[in-house]
Amino acid sequence: MKLTKLSTLLASAAMAVSGTIAMAADYTLTISSWAPPTHGINAMMWPKFVEMIEDATDGQVTAELKLGIAPPPAQMDLIQDGAADLSIVFHGYQPGRFVGYKLIELPGYEGSAEAASVAYWRAHEQYLGKADEHRGVKLIALHTHGPAQLHSTTPVTEMSQIAGLKVRIPGGVGGDVGTALGATGIQVPAPKVYETLASKAADGVVMPFESRKGFKLTEVAQNVYEMPGGLYRGSFAFIMNEDTFADLPEDIQQALEEKVFGEPLSREIGKIWDEIDAIGRAETEATAGNAINAATAADLEKFAVIAADVREKVIAEVAATGVDAQAAYDLIKSEMAAN
C-alpha cells in the first residue's frame, strides 16, 4: 500500500500543501512536483487539489508536497513505480510517448485555459483515451497552460526575426511550430530556462505569460512577441499511482471520482492558469525595461498558414494511433468556442 495510514490518536502534524494541519486525515498522499516552490503549480494548483480532496472526503484524505524528487521527464515513471502518489507531467517532455494529446497544443484555438482544459478532458473521454497513452498510471486531470509566446533577450517585432534565433522550445507542437518559424530549438526543462537565458545559451524561450513571474523572465528576457491565441498551448496531466487509488476504501474512491477527478479538477486547474497568466502579464507591464510587441496583421496571415500546416500534420499523426483525430479536434474547437 503506497499510502500512509494515520490513526486518529496519532494524527499527523505535517503541513499539507493547502497550509492546513492534517490532524484528522486517515490517508496522506505524497505529491512530487518539479516546478519552483513559488510557481503557480505549487503555490496555487496543488493547494487547490488538496482543498478539493479534503472537502470531498470530509478530511479523510489529504496530501503533502515534495519538490526535487526527480526531473520533469521522469515524473510519469516515478508515479508508475510508486516513488510518489501524485505528480504533474508535461507531455511535450517525452516526444513520441503522448501523441494524441498534441491535439490540444495546436495553435489557433480561441479561449481561456479554463475553457481549453474542460474541452481537453471531454475530448479525452470521447476520443483520446482510446489510445491509452497514460497506461500504468491513473489519469485524474488534463489541462493546458495559456497561449505560449516568444520571450527574448532582444526585441522581436516581426515574425521573420525569429528565424535563426536559438530558442528553448519544448517537444510536441511547440517543437513543430519552432521548426516552421526557422528557430534553432534548444531542449531545456522549464526550471532551467532562467540560467539558460542568463548564460546566453539561448536567445529566447517560448512559454506562457505566467513564466514572466513564475520563472523570473522579466529579468532575463525583457521582450515578448505576442501572437493572438499563442504559438501553441502546453499539455499537462495530473496523474496518480494506480495502487494508491486502489488501496483507498471504496466510498473514498467514489467521492474522489465524482467530486474531484476528471472535469472538476481540470476546470479548476485551467482557471488557475488563467489567473497566473494575468499575474505574469501585469508583472511585465510593471517592470521597467520590459516590452510586449504584438504581432502585425501581416504576421497573423503568415502564421495562419503555418498553423494550418502544423494542424494537418498533427491530425494525421494522431489519426495513425487509431483515434478519430478530426472529430476530437472539432470537439475541442467547438467546446472552446462555446465557453
UniProtKB/TrEMBL annotation:
Top-level taxonomic group: Bacteria
Keyword Signal listed: yes
Pfam family membership, one: DctP
Signal peptide, first to last residue: 1-24
Keywords: Periplasm, Signal
GO CC aspect terms: periplasmic space
Major subcellular location class: periplasm
Gene Ontology biological process terms from the UniProt entry: transmembrane transport
Subcellular location: Periplasm
Stretches that traverse the bilayer: none
InterPro entries named in the record: DctP_fam (IPR018389), TRAP_DctP_sf (IPR038404)
PANTHER family, per database record: BLL6794 PROTEIN, PTHR33376
Protein name stated in the entry: TRAP transporter substrate-binding protein
Organism: Ruegeria sp. PrR005
